[in-house]
Structure formats: C-alpha cells, structure tokens
Amino acid sequence: MTTLIPPPGPDRHRAIVSEVALLWAAHHPGPFPDVPFDHRHDLAYLDFNMAGCVTTYLSNDGVPGPGAVEVLRDCLPELRAAVALLARSADYREGLRVFRGLLAMAELILADEA
C-alpha cells in the first residue's frame, strides 16, 4: 500500500488534513487490534505516540505540535516494520489495517511539512 500524497498546489494542505482526518476517523473508534504477543507492548506504544501526533495535528488545523515531526520521522521505520510483521499472517488482518493507516497518516503529515 502506497500513500497517495496530493501534488503541490494551493489546496494541498487542506487535502492532506482532510485525508488524515478520514484515516483517523477510521482508526480511532476501535479497540487495540490483535497483534503478535511478543510485539504487543511495542506496537501499543507506537500507536500511542502516533495518536498524540495525529490528534494534535488535527486539532491545530494541520499544524504539528512541538517535536511531532521528529517523532513521526522516528516512527516511520517502526511503522513500516509493523506493517511487514502483521502482513505475514492472516490472523492479524485488523492490526495490519490499523498500522497501514497509521503509516499513511505519518507519511501524509510529513509530506505536509515538506
């Protein structure tokens, strides 16, 4: 899954904020998904870090909070690893959906800063 980053232009920021809001709405209501037991703590912490960055970004109308860009950059390799891990087994379909969404949100927010 590749995140579709809107092209440069006057509506890019608004398009990114809207897409992040849609992804967050799809992510937010559910309980933490089933993931491999040995990785549950690390993935829950990653989800927690992302939640703080995304909610601040959305509540600030598309402006990341202090330090959020660095947190998101640090989370990218972990999110990619989580997606790869969860993709290995059909038992973790919901976890894969959740972490693909988190990865897409991180990529979009970072692209908004570019």
General description of the model:
The chain has 114 residues and is an all-alpha fold. α1 crosses α2 and α1 runs antiparallel to α4. The longest helix is centred in the C-terminal third of the chain and has 21 residues. The model has no long low-confidence stretch (mean pLDDT 92).
Quick structural gist:
The protein is an all-alpha fold and 114 residues long.
**Termini gap:** 21 Å
Largest sheet: none
Helix and strand content put the structural class at mainly alpha
Q: Quick one: overall form? A: globular
Strand content: under 5%
Radius of gyration, in Å, reads: 14 Å
List the helices and strands and how they pair.
Elements: H1 12-27, H2 40-59, H3 68-87, H4 93-113
What keyword list fits this structure?
114 residues; globular; mainly alpha
